[in-house]
Amino acid sequence: MKAITMADVAEQAGVSKSTVSQFLNERFDYMGKETKVKIEKAIEELGYSPNIVARSLKQKSTMTIGVIVANILHVFSTQVIRAIEDYCNESNFHIIVCNADDDPTKEKRYIDMLRAKQVDGIIAFPTGGNAELYNKLIKANYPVVFMDRILTGVPVPTVMLDNNKASLIAVSQLVKDGYQRIGMIAPPLSSCVTSRVERIDGYKQALQKHGIPFNPDYLVSGEITDLEVKIHHMLTQAEPPEAIVALNDRVLFEILTYAKKQQLTIPKDLALIGIDDVSYASIYSPALTTIAQPAFQMGEKAAELLLSRIRNKSNEGILDVYRFEPNLIKRESC
Amino acid sequence: MKAITMADVAEQAGVSKSTVSQFLNERFDYMGKETKVKIEKAIEELGYSPNIVARSLKQKSTMTIGVIVANILHVFSTQVIRAIEDYCNESNFHIIVCNADDDPTKEKRYIDMLRAKQVDGIIAFPTGGNAELYNKLIKANYPVVFMDRILTGVPVPTVMLDNNKASLIAVSQLVKDGYQRIGMIAPPLSSCVTSRVERIDGYKQALQKHGIPFNPDYLVSGEITDLEVKIHHMLTQAEPPEAIVALNDRVLFEILTYAKKQQLTIPKDLALIGIDDVSYASIYSPALTTIAQPAFQMGEKAAELLLSRIRNKSNEGILDVYRFEPNLIKRESC
DNA sequence: CTGAAAGCGCTTACAG
DNA sequence: CTGAAAGCGCTTACAG
Fold it and tell me: What are the record keywords, sorted (chains A, B) (predicted)?
């Protein structure tokens, strides 16, 4: 584009660069009315727009943050990003979006580059492989907020679903509906994905609470691609579960795929409840009972935490884990 | 974070800033081996990482681009963004994601801010309300690529689905399946959303091609929230359509909601085919026949076009519209 | 009420 | 093979 700079405006208006800068930053306290008008006119005529890179260099603030998710294609991440973007937009921040794909190497590259580009802070779904790096950032008082995953030993404000409760609600609902043989199907359990670990723990605790002994044959976890076989195995044992909690949307999808293929009738042959309110829950037959995460509120909270950290420059009193309530949406699948 | 600058590295290594800069930019042609080692060591010891903002100011390139979508929550946009991000990541670019919500004012604000932040180029789903602004950018030789929408009079490379063909495939499939009374349901038709206009045109042309007269009562369009009433009206007329083409995923959702509520059996009571391959198409009962957009290829193409524009600084020969083939995925709903 | 000057952290001819 | 110097386009004390 054109290369109109502040110097050009200053010349055109017949004032100094300093004065133009004052004008742009709305420091009008001592500015003559005439001066103001002259500058306004010059800006208009030249079509001047300030170079924010130059400002950023001087002010050490870029008004942009980085958001590192596992994969933007996951609906939860998309919703969180949308909420973050809305919040940032109101505060005149922009967001750089990065997909780490649960790969610590990729995550590290992004963190380093974002830092080099001087973004004012980072919101991350951490992979778990860069605890040390994050700790370095924190020690340097760099603003970081985590989402969905807790890294032990990394003291960062973290926004989480109350996963334990989500499982409790799910199991309780199934019990209430008269089921006793309740299973859970889960993705692989790497220990860094806190939400998964917590949901499984919550499932076990909920069973206990209801006086149902935990049966290891009723808990299946594995890569999405292997799940079909494992589900088959689980459901064809001597005394299979009558009801299943799907740990997340992608597991639910696999169960539904299996159910369709085997022509199982839901909930008669198999009752279902899923954590994550999938888009098609209400139009499925039967409509699917789900437990929704308040993704937008969670994203907004993360943005709020980060921006307040950025503005206050302090690390005080916000090293907590913020828990959000899961919402049961009762439909027809159990 | 720490405030280690190139000057610190230079001092520590006992060389000048220039030399450090040469080192960082891998201009090793004339650099002594010893010097190299000294600098490497200094960087390591100090944990130096260059300030890219400073570099950007000097080089007039930020290695970041802006992506303005209508709404990241639309699945197509999410997929396009993911593809763009992947492509950019390979080329060491970052993306700033913006939601314009089909609001020209919001779009303008984003464009202005992105420009001010000196992003190297913009990929947009344009709202249609800022043709003039875009033309200014283009005249200033600023790299812009459009996605999904054509603005007449704005000469920019544009990535599009062959929407006409998508409708043709849909109608032809329905005809082949023995349906003659074929309707289409669509979102509102503001003239700027090219894809919608083209799909409707395509629908009409396809009917003609198959010798079926166009019946205005079989074409319904309106706000998503009003669609249920309109669908009801359409399907309860004397001789209602036996089959329907859903213009996009959101329309399809409304039709399915209606069908479930009215307990219509698909395809017996109503055959369906949807443009956009929705996530639940394969697990729905019956599985839904859809026409998929190659969203990832389209996003990749947009990124490729933009980056090559950025690198070549020329506007030559790429002012075309790039059309992508829709893919029929035949399932059970028609 | 306004301007001259220094500085943010780099890069880049140019000189030697 | 390396360094001094100017400059990218802003902001910010400070002087007047």
Answer: DNA-binding, Transcription, Transcription regulation
pLDDT of residue A316: 59
Instruction: Answer yes or no: do A173 and A235 share one domain.
Output: yes
Are B125 and B90 in the same domain?
yes
Task: Enter the tokens of residue B313.
Answer: 């600084």
A37: CB within 7 A of chain C nucleic strand = no
The amino acid at residue A238 is A
Mean pLDDT, to the nearest integer, of B23-35? Answer: 78
A260:B2 CB<8 A:
no
Q: How confident is the model at residue A36 (pLDDT cuts 50, 70, 90)?
A: confident
* Same domain flag for A238 and A305: no
DSSP per-residue codes, A184-212: EEE----TT-HHHHHHHHHHHHHHHHTTP
Enter the tokens of residue A163: 């996963």
Residues B287 and B241 in one domain: yes
- Residue B331 belongs to a domain: no
Question: Tell me, what CATH number does B250's domain have?
Answer: 3.40.50.2300
Give me Rg for the CA atoms of chain A.
Answer: 26
Within a domain: A167 = yes
User: Does A1 contact B142 at a Cβ distance shorter than 8 Å?
Assistant: yes
Which range of residues forms the domain containing residue A270?
163-292
A65-92 per-residue burial string, b: 16 or more CB within 10 A, e: under 16: bbbbbbebebbbbbbbbbbbbebbbeee
Query: Is residue B330 in a domain?
Result: no
Residue by residue, DSSP assigns B285-321 as SSPPPEEE--HHHHHHHHHHHHHHHHHH---TT--SE
Q: How far apart are alpha carbons A182 and A279 in whole angstroms?
A: 24
Phi, psi of A19 (to 5 degrees): -65, -40
- How many contacts does A have with B, using Cβ atoms within 8 A? 140
In a domain, A331, yes or no: no
Task: State how beta strands A327-329 and A290-292 pair.
Answer: antiparallel
- The tens digit of pLDDT for each residue in B193-243 reads 899 999 999 999 999 999 999 999 999 999 999 999 999 999 999 999 999
CA distance B88 to chain A (A): 10
In order of A19, A46, B107, the CA distances from A49 in angstroms are: 16, 9, 17
